[in-house]
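Late entry, written up from scratch paper. The run itself happened at the end of the previous shift, but nothing got recorded in the book at the time, so transcribing now.
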Amino acid sequence: MLIIAEKENPKLDLKLGSGYKIPFNEKFDIVLASLVVHYLKDWDKMFKEVGRVLKSRGYLIFSTGNPVAEARKKIKVGNKEISVLDNYFNEGKIYGKWKDNKGNKMKMSSYHKTYETIIKTIVKNNFEIVDYKDCFPIKKAKKLFPEDYAEYSRKPFFCVWKIKKK
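Output as recorded:
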């Protein structure tokens, strides 16, 4: 993704790091973590590290699985499969079923947190919430991926947070 971003935005100075150890001593205006943080168990450690490399009043923009969507479970009702909310308050490691590019099934782990835990962790780590967005699919996805669009336009699977370092 970084190679694509550099190719499409040659004037930007883009850097790559990990959630717990960002290998830079310089200060940044913005840190972007797209669909990364839910793979990290210790968000306090991640926020501390991001705070270390952000300028004062700098932004962290991160997307993650929507906490409500993460707590869903599929059940069969008659000949139809539906999603129901299940175990929202049970925080910790969860597993999703993924397919690789060859169609092989695999388990992928991530860490579920409630909205309460996310908000309190943000505030505790000296950040303030600037904006929040429940993700909704773009219009052209309706034609390209009609089944996914039908499901993703009914409930939020992902969310984006924009927070500012105090």
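The chain is about 25% helix and 35% strand.
(Scratch paper discarded after transcription.)
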